[in-house]
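Quick one:
INPUT:
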C-alpha cells in the first residue's frame, strides 16, 4: 500500500478506463455523495464508470443527481459482478476495512484492478494499492473536493458534483456541528454554493421530508431515552417498535444525537434491534476526549471516529445495554473530567 501521489493518479486516469466506485455497506450521505461526486468527475474525463453499492440506501438520498444509476449489488449481483470482473480501477470510498463492503469484499480481494482507497477514518487496513487518507477531515466528500482540485480540475466541479459533495459534508458533520468541521470545510461549501449549489433545498430534502411513521418512531425513541447518572445516556429501539412505525432504511439516522444534546451528557449510544441479521446495531457519540472509536473496537465489533463510531452486538438488547452501562461505570473519571 502506498500513499497516493497526484502525479501517479494523473497518469492512471490520463486515458479512458473502466472504473468501479464502491461505497460502504448501508451507505450514508457521505458515502453516496462522495461516490456520485467522483463518478460525475470521472465521466467528464471520459471514463466508463459505475457506482456499485453493497446494498440499498435511504430514500432521502435518492434525489441526488445520478443516484438513479447506482447499481445495488444485493438486488443486481449479476450485473454488478459482470462489470467488476472487467474493470481497470476500483475506488473504495468512505471506508478503510473490506469488512465494510459486504459480499463485494471477495471480488475486491481477487481483482487485478488497481485499488484506490479514499477515506477519513482511522487505522486503514492495507488492502489498497494506493491510499488517500486524512483523519482530520470531517467527511470523505470534502476529501473528494480536494482530490479533484489537486488534480488541477477544480473548474470541473459543476453544480451536480457540488450538490453531491455538499450533501455528504453536511450530513457527516451533523450540519457543521462536529469538531472536525474546520475553516477549510466552510470555505469548501462556500465555493460549492458560489458554483450554484442550492444548500437550502439540500437541507430540506434530507431533513424536512419526513413521513408520519418516522416522526412517530422519533417519539418512541425519545420516550426510550435513559440517563446514566448525569453525563451519559442511551436510546433503545426494538424490532417490534420499528415494525410498529413501518421502519424504512434511514429512519433512525441521527437519532443518537438527541442523547448527546442533553445538558451535561458527554457519552451516548443508540441500540437498534435487527431480528433478520440477529444483531443489535449500535451508534456511539461523545464529546471531548472520550474516544468512542476505541469503545466500538474493543467491545462492539466496530469502529469509526474518536467522537462518532458504530458497531454491533450479538447479545440481546438488554445484555448489550448492561455492557454499555458497565463501560460508563468504568470511565466515570473521564466522564466527570
Amino acid at each position: 500500500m502506498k500513499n497516493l501521489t497526484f502525479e501517479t493518479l494523473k497518469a492512471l486516469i490520463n486515458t479512458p478506463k473502466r472504473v468501479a466506485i464502491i461505497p460502504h455497506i448501508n451507505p450514508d450521505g457521505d458515502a453516496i455523495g462522495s461516490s456520485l461526486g467522483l463518478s460525475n468527475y470521472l465521466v467528464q474525463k471520459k471514463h466508463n464508470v459505475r457506482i456499485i453499492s453493497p446494498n440499498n440506501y435511504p430514500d432521502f438520498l435518492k434525489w441526488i443527481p445520478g443516484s438513479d444509476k447506482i447499481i445495488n449489488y444485493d438486488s443486481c449481483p449479476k450485473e454488478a459482478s459482470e462489470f467488476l470482473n472487467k474493470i481497470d480501477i476500483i475506488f473504495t470510498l468512505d471506508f478503510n476495512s473490506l469488512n465494510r463492503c459486504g459480499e463485494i469484499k471477495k471480488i475486491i480481494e481477487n481483482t487485478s484492478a488497481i485499488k484506490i482507497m479514499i477515506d477519513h477514518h482511522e487505522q486503514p487496513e492495507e488492502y489498497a494499492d494506493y491510499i488517500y487518507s486524512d483523519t482530520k477531515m470531517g467527511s470523505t466528500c470534502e476529501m473528494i473536493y480536494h482530490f479533484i482540485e489537486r488534480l488541477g480540475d477544480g473548474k470541473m466541479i459543476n453544480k451536480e458534483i457540488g450538490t453531491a459533495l455538499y450533501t455528504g459534508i453536511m450530513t457527516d458533520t451533523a450540519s457543521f456541528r462536529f469538531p472536525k468541521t474546520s475553516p477549510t470545510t466552510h470555505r469548501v461549501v462556500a465555493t460549492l454554493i458560489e458554483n450554484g449549489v442550492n444548500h437550502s433545498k439540500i437541507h430540506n430534502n434530507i431533513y424536512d421530508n419526513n413521513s408520519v411513521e418516522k416522526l412517530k418512531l422519533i417519539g418512541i425513541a425519545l420516550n426510550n431515552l435513559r440517563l446514566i447518572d448525569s453525563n451519559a445516556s442511551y436510546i433503545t429501539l426494538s424490532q417490534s417498535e420499528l415494525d410498529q412505525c413501518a421502519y424504512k432504511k434511514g429512519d433512525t439516522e441521527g437519532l443518537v444525537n438527541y442523547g448527546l444534546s442533553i445538558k451535561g451528557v458527554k457519552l451516548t449510544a443508540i441500540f437498534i434491534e435487527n431480528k433478520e441479521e440477529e444483531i443489535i446495531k449500535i451508534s456511539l457519540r461523545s464529546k471531548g476526549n472520550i474516544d468512542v472509536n476505541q469503545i466500538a473496537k474493543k467491545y462492539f465489533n466496530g469502529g469509526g471516529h474518536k467522537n462518532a463510531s458504530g458497531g454491533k452486538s450479538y447479545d440481546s438488547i438488554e445484555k448489550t445495554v448492561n455492557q454499555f452501562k458497565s463501560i460508563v461505570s468504568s470511565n466515570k473519571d473521564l466522564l466527570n473530567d
